[in-house]
Automatic annotation (TrEMBL):
One of its GO terms (molecular function) is hydrolase activity, acting on carbon-nitrogen (but not peptide) bonds, in cyclic amides. PANTHER family: COLLAPSIN RESPONSE MEDIATOR PROTEIN, HYDRANTOINASE/DIHYDROPYRIMIDINASE FAMILY MEMBER. The modification N6-carboxylysine is found at residue 156. Keywords: Hydrolase, Metal-binding. Gene3D superfamilies: Metal-dependent hydrolases, Urease, subunit C, domain 1. Carbamylation allows a single lysine to coordinate two divalent metal cations. Belongs to the metallo-dependent hydrolases superfamily. Hydantoinase/dihydropyrimidinase family. GO terms for cellular component: cytosol. The lineage of its organism: Bacteria, Bacillati, Actinomycetota, Actinomycetes, Kitasatosporales. This is Phenylhydantoinase.
Length: 467
């Protein structure tokens, strides 16, 4: 049975252009776009017509950095694939790329299979996987080739978290060399975790136990140093490199220098680094624990470099690093010792809105909004143009966005499975109204109409910024 949906009268915004156009959806894909009011568009018939007059019609968001159900810090991220992808849909994100984990002593295969088992049949929107390499050895290096052929084309390595995810420079170099040969993209958590652990120990010995010390010991210089080192190792390996969750101005400078040399080095930042700061981490009592993540929030002055990087394309992607832990019972594990606060912030539902707010405030253009939130992550991780744009043949992942609606972000109204909002009380102009995932309406005029299991595993190609 063929179903046709027509989205009529909106302003279609992609990374490349803005046009008043009608969008015809057929069997889960975009069948055609035509200028609004033309004979071609008027002749279209459909089972359902969505009136988008006065609204934007944009590609569904692609959040290339989430951690649903991640076991971490002695607990597990509080959103499951079911609750987290539902919240993503509410926020206009129709694809997530989550991180499967290889734990030390196990294979990539086992890790990936475990993540497939968690996600299979539970997701509201489409999903893919990156692989976290925690145990680089002869076997796992060989497995990288296999994963690339299965559509898991990116691998996260950690210069932080010794004893958990950490890899030393030799292991990092070997993984980069492998990626150089098989088309994989290395994603780096760039913080000098060995040095940070010394500073953590010294801070705790001085009785500095509160959340704000998390930000103080994870020095911006140690992010910049690791970023620099990762770039040099990637040059030696002749491999492309993507730095995740960039927060420090000094780290942005390393990316700028590398890109000015023409190196295939890319960068991601997250809404928390653009909108929050060490002021939040220093909230009275233990409230700052809500803002503990790594890399950490930085003093406000760093935000200028991040916005600038997004405008100049020295940073290409904004992902959430969604890794929620409830304040009650989870963040509280670190009362009296900041190093025991589980690291991570919720945000998968808020990214599209926060970045639209940046459009409203004149920080980025509308098209840049769609680029950093949809098109660039899709291209970076081999999903374009199936995801990330509105074009004939693309998956009909479409958001009708009301640019004039006013909303206040709050844990009382969000859909993420976490008992606080990192953006509590923040006013946003703009709101998701209707969301289609492969042609199926999953948010219908601000009501959820999706279902667990609609979302499909989406194998990915290799990075489309290369060659
Ligand atoms: O604090 C964070 N970012 N938690 C998630 C794990 C990671 O390093 O991305
Ligand atoms: Zn990380
Ligand atoms: Zn992460
Ligand atoms: Zn992270």
């Amino acid at each position: 049975m063929s179903t046709r949906t027509l989205i009529r009268g909106g302003l279609v915004v992609t990374a490349a252009e803005e046009t008043h156009a009608d969008v015809l959806v057929e069997d889960g894909r975009i069948a055609a776009l035509a200028a609004h009011g033309t004979d071609a568009a008027r002749a279209w018939t459909a089972d359902r017509i969505i009136d988008a007059t006065g609204k934007y019609v944009i590609p569904g968001g692609v959040d290339a950095h989430t951690h649903m159900e991640l076991p971490f810090g002695g607990t597990a991220a509080s959103d499951t694939f079911e609750t987290g992808t539902r919240a993503a849909a509410w926020g206009g994100t129709t694809t997530i790329v989550d991180f499967a984990v290889q734990s030390v002593g196990t294979s990539l295969r086992d890790g990936l299979d475990a993540w497939h088992a968690k996600a299979d049949g539970r997701c509201a929107v489409d999903y893919g996987f990156h692989m976290i390499l925690s145990d680089v050895n002869e076997h796992s290096l060989k497995e990288m080739d296999l994963l690339v052929s299965e559509g898991v084309t990116s691998f996260k390595l950690f210069m932080a978290y010794p004893g958990v995810f950490y890899s030393d420079d030799g292991r990092i170099l070997r993984a980069m060399q492998r990626a150089s040969g098989n088309g994989g993209l290395i994603m780096m958590h760039a913080e000098n975790g060995i040095a940070i652990d010394v500073l953590v120990e010294q801070a705790l010995a001085r009785g500095e136990t509160s959340p704000r010390h998390h930000g103080e010991v994870r020095r911006a210089l140690l992010e910049a140093e690791a970023t620099h080192r990762a770039i040099q190792l990637a040059r030696v390996a002749d491999a492309p490199l993507y730095i995740v969750h960039v927060s420090a101005e000094e780290a942005v400078a390393e990316l700028v220098a590398a890109r000015d040399k023409g190196l295939p080095v890319f960068g991601e930042t997250c809404p928390q680094y653009l909108f929050l700061s060490t002021d939040d981490l220093a909230a009275p009592g233990f409230e700052g624990a809500k803002y503990v993540c790594s890399t950490p929030l930085r003093p406000k002055e760093h935000q200028r470099a991040l916005w600038r990087g997004l405008r100049t394309d020295d940073l290409q992607v904004v992902s959430t690093d969604h890794c929620p832990f409830c304040f009650s019972g989870q963040k509280e594990l670190g009362r009296g010792d900041f190093s025991k606060i589980p690291n991570g912030l919720p945000g998968v539902e808020n990214r599209m809105d926060l970045l639209h707010q940046a459009v409203v405030e004149g920080r980025i253009s509308r098209r840049r909004w769609i680029d950093i939130a949809c098109a660039a992550p899709a291209r970076m991780f081999g999903l374009y143009p199936k995801k990330g744009t509105l074009a004939p043949g693309a998956d009909a992942d479409i958001v009708v966005y009301d640019p004039h609606a006013e909303q206040v972000l709050s844990a009382d109204t969000h859909h993420m499975n976490v008992d606080y909002s990192a953006y509590e009380g923040k006013r946003i102009t703009g709101q998701v109204e209707t969301v289609l995932s492969r042609g199926t309406v999953v948010i219908d005029g601000r009501a959820y109409t999706g279902r667990a299991g609609h979302g499909r595993y989406t194998p990915r190609g290799t990075c489309q910024y290369l060659g």
